[in-house]
Amino acid sequence: MALLRLVGRVLHGVHPEISHRLGSLLFSIPLPPCRCERRWEVGGVKTCGPVGVAAGLDKTGAYARFLSFFCPGFLVVGSTLPYRRRGNKPPRVARLSPYSLVNAMGLNSPGIDRVVSRLAGLDYPVFISLAGFNAGDFLVQLLYLRRHYRPAAVEVNISSPTYRGFWRSLPELVNVDIPLFVKVGPSTDISSVARAVKRAGWGLVVTNTFPVEDRRISVGRGGLSGLLLYRYGVRLLERVRTYVGRDVPIIYSGGLFTCSQLREVLKLADAAEVLTAILYFTPYIITLLNRCLDSLR
Prior knowledge:
single chain
């Protein structure tokens, strides 16, 4: 951990837009996937551990092989769209202390077909996160996955700050024989989505980033992630678990950095995801967090 802290301090001195570009080059290196030695299960989906990589880090599928080397429980790729979208102009990322970020990428995507083509042949648990600005965007992508690529699971992202509260309730979705998780956040009508998910037999991902104003970002606002999000995220997790009971699988995402946090989260959630911790402390933190499994059982 001392080495990871040192790396974090070094990276903290580099402008986040430059760090993002350097990271894009590094994370595109194709490394061999980790051998799946730990076993975990969330909502019937078999994974390689309790902690996966959250959506938003690998939006294009280009990083999946690099990240799989570090033994994540699973990889969430996306969020994707059925078409190409450029997203926002830089600057899109700003740092906050302690160990937090504000980002406004703008749901950039090369399109789901390009993403899936980059994942071909990767033998690792992959979740695909879907985004959409209307119900048709989700339906088209679900049908595309049913025909062209079978991920371990699908996340339906209805909580990105880019939507500006557009999806408060769950859009009508086509039934596919792929495990499905709905990603909720601050803008979501939690109680109505929880009821719909429970009826459908799906799972939930809690939470997305928290919308904040930040004039360092080109669009003047973005989503807060990292340690500053953690307490809010855990309170939302408690609320959601109360709504759905123990039968609905929940994956927690938001400010997770340590084994003690993971222990707290897994009292209520079935698995967890990280993103900002990777950006501050390199992907090796995924390996360390999944080793917490040894003290969790």
